[in-house]
């Protein structure tokens, strides 16, 4: 019993420990790390990539709406990194997959368009309402050419969105429908996938981009907040103005040249026959009114050009005069 510490001695030892400022060790937080899912992109990289593709979504919305002549909306749903093998396994059945390059970057990237979106775009380009086929079949040669044209235009917006980081030149290499034939990098290589929610008319679907780390590695220093903000302040306005001007120049406008007007009764209209003459409120020497999107913009004279009917512009209406001439 002589070897046992007395209660007073135990209290003295505990007091000495407290006096030295020693505290009980806190429980350490341990995070599981999967070596097969290597994280090559920092949170800063992901934020910059998200901003780039938010701009891409806006540009694609503007351009594709004019190209397909229907309302298109696009927004970034997520930007995440994963092994390439995981991306391939997540590709939905019947998706239209395109491989493309963006020089001067080395290597291929992937653009995956959900089947419902791809066929809606195809239907619009072929003059339809953007509906879905009753049964998904293999693309014909003509349909493949049309799809390639649509995807090439979508990739033009991609290169415009990346201008603040690097001037790219995108080129569509090939279309693929079987994801198992995609062998652009090794299965364990880290890739960034950008998922966009897209609406074409009444059809909803997704578009995904797959950007391998090996392809982006040479420009990783540029994907920093400091580099991004400095370039944005310096180049934002000129680039946005140039991109907007480029889109506006490709916008289609309806032009109407009016020979004149006339009023007749319903009875006269129902009794019209071949050879009848409708008298207009203008003479043959009067200038024609030329409307652009139903607004009076020019005056002109009728004639022919290379055997086809034409109008020669003789006067440009001033903006102030145009305000009261909405058709």
From TrEMBL:
Subcellular location: Bacterial flagellum basal body; Cell membrane
Pfam families registered for this protein in UniProt: FliM, FliMN_C
SUPFAM superfamilies assigned: CheC-like (SSF103039), Surface presentation of antigens (SPOA) (SSF101801)
Keyword Cell membrane part of the UniProt annotation: yes
Keyword check for Ribosomal protein: no
Biological process annotations from GO: bacterial-type flagellum-dependent swarming motility; positive chemotaxis
Flagellar motor switch protein FliN-like C-terminal domain ranges (all copies): 247-316
Family annotation (InterPro entries): CheC-like_sf, Flag_FliM, FliN-like_C, SpoA-like_sf
N-terminal signal peptide: none
Top-level lineage group: Bacteria
Molecular-function GO terms, alphabetical: cytoskeletal motor activity
Membrane topology type: Peripheral membrane protein
Keywords assigned: Bacterial flagellum, Cell membrane, Cell projection, Chemotaxis, Cilium, Flagellar rotation, Flagellum, Membrane
GO cellular component annotations of the record: bacterial-type flagellum basal body; plasma membrane
Predominant localisation class: other
Family: Belongs to the FliM family.
Protein name, per record: Flagellar motor switch protein FliM
Organism of origin: Guptibacillus hwajinpoensis
